[in-house]
Predict the structure of Transcriptional regulator.
Amino acid sequence: MSPTPEKQHPVTVEERLFSLVLALIATQIGLTKAEILSTVQGYRQRFQVGGDNASLERQFERDKDDIRELGIPLETIESPDDPGSNHHLRYRIPKGLYDLPADISFSPDEIMLLKLAATVWREGSLSAESRRALTKLNSLGIDSTDPVIGYAPSLRAREASFEPLSKAMDRGQVVAFQYLKPGESAPRRRVIAPLAVVLHEGRWHLYGADQDAGATRTFLLSRIVGPVVTVPGTIAGPPAADDQGQRALAELDTLWRAQVALITVEPGSDAAVRLSKRGTPGPAAGDVELHYTDLNILADELAGYGPEVLVLNPSALRDAVVSRLRHVRDAHTPAPQAEEDMDR
């Protein structure tokens, strides 16, 4: 029985360039064009052994130009046995030229921001396909002179649903999970074709096609309860377009801009210091206007400041904060003693 052909999945331009850069950094002696086209994610899916790869070679030439335009030094090495031959040229990104200049340094705040930005990369940018491609490079005898993790930021996504959702997108699968919305007493099963997982306002969101509603929806990963499972016998439909992530972020940004809370903070308090940095001054002294995406998440945060914050509007946010404060009060109020106990 002949082996089943590997199912093809779309590879974005960003992932292809990232995989190419990663492979060229990981080699000391460089890679030939044939090695790149046959092993690197984004090329190998279309590479034909002994076939016509002219269009793939033209794509590689365009990608080389894109990499150089990004300011990444791409070096070519001629074969000493065949000087002047393009066929045996090797390509690499020398680590020494890729390092930051010695006179550039970052303040602690700048380093913190760079580390926060890194959360987008660690789990989301390098797919299982890219990792597999690096393994294939090693199988050719091309050793990595530096660990790949040195070029991938070290912060990880905390939600357990991140990895299975990313795998489902890679494979074009439909998934199901239990989703608990605020105010509901029990989670509800959702069946979704994942289109993108994005980071917005410090929280991971799933953007996908809701199979029951027949429309796209956005879900907070932190509200997914239990495991994410694939749904057998379902088809996700045509491959997702490359711009689904941008579309999801644009919708979240639109929602964030449209929703504004007006609060008053206690001068000199922790709330005043933290919230004033995120918001803009309101109409009166001590007022702060805050944009937000999710009312319940903001209510949780504001309730944590206790008497340091007063919500002026919207009323739904004020009611949500008051409800949380009352819940805390009731949870810490001793139960009244029975009358017979009081008589003893």
